[in-house]
Amino acid sequence: MARTCLCACLILALIGSGCSDDRRRVTVGSKNFLEQVLLGELIAQHVERRLGITVDRRLNLGGTMLAHRALLNGDIDLYPEYTGTALTAVLDLPPSADAHSVRDRVKREYEQRYGIQWLDPLGFQNTFAMIVRRADAERDHVESLSDAAHRAAAWTLGVGYEFQQRPDGLPRLLETYALQLTGPPTTMDLGLLYRALEQRQVDMIAGNSTDGPLSVFDVTVLRDDRQCFPAYEAAIVVRSDALARVPGLESVLHEMTGRLSGETMRRLNHQAVSRRGQVADVAREFLNAAGWPGNTKDPSRAVLFQRPSVQPGN
Question: pTM here?
């Protein structure tokens, strides 16, 4: 009898331990483009390192609404999102270039509608960016989109499919700045835009402010001086029950606040492309650098990963 009781106790203890471990598991998701997968991997590795728990990954889920539904359904506990995307695509509210008002509105609406928490921004925006060759910008004295609208020669514009279709993309650009174009924009895959600009197939392209090629191509990002494009601050959106279920999760996620500048994301995105999408290795090397919580390996690299003193602009 004593042996039977002892075995039963051991079984119950093991079951209880397993339940406890399951309750501490965290599932990180992401949408289906490289920067999102990279951010998801960064978050997952950071949580694993800091809390010593199992983190499941459901990266590359799909578009915004698929990731949002996965969060609402509890299929994932958190994922990285952009304030402007949440405002327009999820909440169906009008876009705004005021980063602070967008952030506050999104936080409030997500909590009221879904019981979902938005954490403070990671430190960068990924908004649309109109890009020209640096030599052309210097020759024509073009620094802003207003300058571009007044250039004597019309522009040959290259865009991605999404930018052409989204109301906050091409329609908003042309309405705000009335750019003179040689004809309808040339639509192509995002990965081809920078080569098309370099090879003079187009004079201007619609990219994103954290594109990896911006760190290597000789180009100029034109200033959005009329604040045409909405604010797209990157932040972690997380289920409230996950924060309550996993001790220390909220404080560990807050450690990422403000640590990823626009320059850092451009470098990381470029590294991920150069290494054929090996985002786990890129994330691991970044987290191993000094200046990130819990790591002090190489002080000479710390400056790359400190919190930016000025938030990136639109």
Answer: 0.81
